[in-house]
Specification:
heterodimer, A: 257 residues, alpha+beta, elongated, B: alpha+beta, five-stranded antiparallel sheet, 7 helices, 28% strand, proteasome endopeptidase complex (chain B)
Chain lengths: 257, 290
């Protein structure tokens, strides 16, 4: 240690300083800490790819919208045409925000479960069962979670639109509308007002939620997000699932800056 | 078949019981624990620290934090008159917050655990939903196997034992198992620390201190049904008024000797006006729309 090189009698202050520095150095970088332990403390398998997504359920339809931008480190735009909405079947649509690696793994897991269900029971899995399945699969990773905020949407067995929202470890709730991703705090108040009619004042009109109105609201919502959120933009991907009809996709351009 | 935790053996062996009759082994013997284990992060990283670093309050994932926060309460009371039924009142709020963001205002925090029992959700929302569902599954299997209803004591004991197995790994569960069985109405508070306590008046959650204030002041062992329900709603309303982690609607379940009755939710801000009117209190700030 450097402390012993200093002569405490002739240079006590220098000796003290050297001793303190040596002590601090040993605390920061102990001899026994191997490279593996350092790697373990800094290990971060997650990254956020940005973007946002939302879903609105109506009487016999459900509208899911997302942007299509992928960012790296919240600054670089890596891809302008990413699919964040995955239609798993004609009446189940998964959309998520968060780490794209975990999103792809979740999608693979759900698709294989749906496939196995079809093999075992010779009919398609309903949205309610799939929602419960996803909640459980998210919780099975309770101690090494999927870094995603998932939304599952679809048409339930009574023909009504269903939207299920999740937290990263699988807290499930069925709602009339939900949003997830970077612009969630901007989308939810808008949907609370226009779809949930929660914050409208007493006398204002409360229009019925038709398919056209839902699509228009989603487009407006994402246009306003693109104005004020850096990781949302490039284009809107709309997916419309109606009872008894195949799933429809629509794309509109958004700001690219 | 391999669910986490409990498995049924897939074999078709028969087993002999004490009287020498043969039965299918699955029908007679209790299920054994399967070989499912929760996957942990690699490199020997401890899950609690890892989850806290990436999903905790200091992490960069603002909207991806786990949903938490609540006020739940339950109390046992006896009927005052012949028209009342007595039993247990369980009242909860309905807010779930992910960090500072309110991720949901309509969570159902009273979960069914059996035909005559409920469990409340406090702490981590996903944790409570998953483990209460596990306990419900165990209760169903128990009732099929033993051909009699499970006691609240047994269900809460199972719950506490399961949670003790994950002690120290970062689960957050503060649940009350409440129900009516042959020993009468019982409320057990079960904890992710492994606590299990029998209580007559209980409240769990961030707003529990406020709820205890109201409960301790107005609780009487014998009450009419309306008084008991009003007490439950009043305690929740006061807790949501002063606690930022609680809000939404007040959901109430009344467990009587014969059945469970769920009441529709009442918005807590409307409750505030009702109670303020009743005690003749002025609303100090009365904004008027021009």
């Amino acid at each position: 240690l450097n402390a012993f090189k200093h002569d405490a009698k002739h240079d006590p202050l220098g000796a003290m300083r050297a001793f303190k520095a040596a002590f601090a150095d040993v605390e920061e970088n102990p001899d026994w800490r191997s490279a593996r332990l350092i790697e373990r403390q800094r290990w971060n398998p997650y990254s956020m790819e940005g973007g946002s997504t939302a879903a609105v359920a109506g009487d016999n339809f459900v509208v899911i919208a997302s942007d299509t931008r992928m960012t790296a480190g919240e600054i670089n735009v890596v891809n302008r045409e990413v699919d964040k909405i995955h239609a798993l079947s004609d009446n189940i649509v998964l959309t998520t925000s968060g780490f794209y690696g975990d999103v792809l793994q979740m999608r693979k897991l759900l698709e294989s479960h749906l496939h196995k269900y079809r093999f075992d029971y010779r009919s398609n899995m309903t949205v309610d069962l799939c929602a419960e399945l996803l909640a459980r699969n998210l919780y099975y990773r309770r101690f090494f979670p999927y870094y995603t905020g998932a939304i599952l949407a679809g048409i339930d067995e009574h023909g009504k639109g269903a939207v299920f929202s999740y937290d990263p470890i699988g807290c499930i709730e069925r709602l009339a509308y939900s949003a997830s991703g970077a612009a969630e705090p901007m989308l939810i108040p808008f949907l609370d007002c226009q779809v949930g009619h929660v914050t409208l004042s007493e006398g204002s009109e409360r229009p019925k939620l038709t398919l056209d109105r839902a699509c228009a609201l989603m487009r407006d919502a994402f246009r306003s997000c693109a104005e004020r959120e850096i990781t949302t933009g490039d284009s809107i991907h709309l997916v419309i699932a109606e009872a008894g009809k195949p799933v429809r996709h629509e794309r509109r351009k958004l700001r690219e800056d | 078949t391999d669910m986490w935790g409990l498995t049924y053996r897939d074999d078709e062996r028969d087993t002999e019981d004490a009287l020498g009759e043969t039965f299918d082994v699955n029908a007679v013997e209790a299920p054994v624990s399967g070989n499912f284990t929760f996957p942990n992060p690699p490199l020997g990283i401890q899950p609690k620290g890892f989850v806290n670093a990436h999903f905790g309050p200091d992490s960069s994932a603002k909207s991806l934090q786990f949903r938490k926060g609540t006020t739940t309460l339950a109390f046992v009371y006896e009927p005052l008159t012949e028209k009342d039924q007595g039993g247990i009142i369980v009242a909860v709020d309905s807010r779930a917050s992910a960090g500072e963001y309110i991720s949901s205002k309509s969570v159902m925090k009273i979960l069914d655990v059996g035909d005559h029992m409920v469990a409340t959700m406090a702490g981590g929302a996903a944790d409570c939903q998953f483990w209460c569902r596990t306990v419900h599954k165990y209760c169903n299997l128990f009732e099929l196997r033993e051909r009699s209803t499970i006691t609240v004591s047994a269900a809460s004991k199972y719950f506490a034992n399961v949670l003790y197995g994950y002690k120290g790994q970062g689960l957050s569960v503060g649940s009350m198992v409440a129900g009516y069985d042959k020993r009468g109405p019982q409320i057990f508070m079960v904890n992710s620390e492994g606590d299990r306590t029998l209580l007559k008046v209980c409240s769990v959650g961030s707003g529990s201190l406020n709820a205890y204030g109201i409960l301790d002041t107005y609780y009487k062992p014998k009450m009419t049904d309306e008084e008991a329900q009003k007490l439950g709603r009043r305690a929740i309303m006061h807790a949501t008024y002063r606690d930022a982690g609680s809000g939404g609607v007040c959901n109430l379940v009344h467990i009587t000797p014969t059945k469970k009755v769920r009441y529709p939710g009442v918005d807590v801000s409307k409750l505030w006006y009702e109670f303020a009117d009743e005690i003749g209190r002025d609303i100090a700030y009365d904004p008027r729309d021009e």
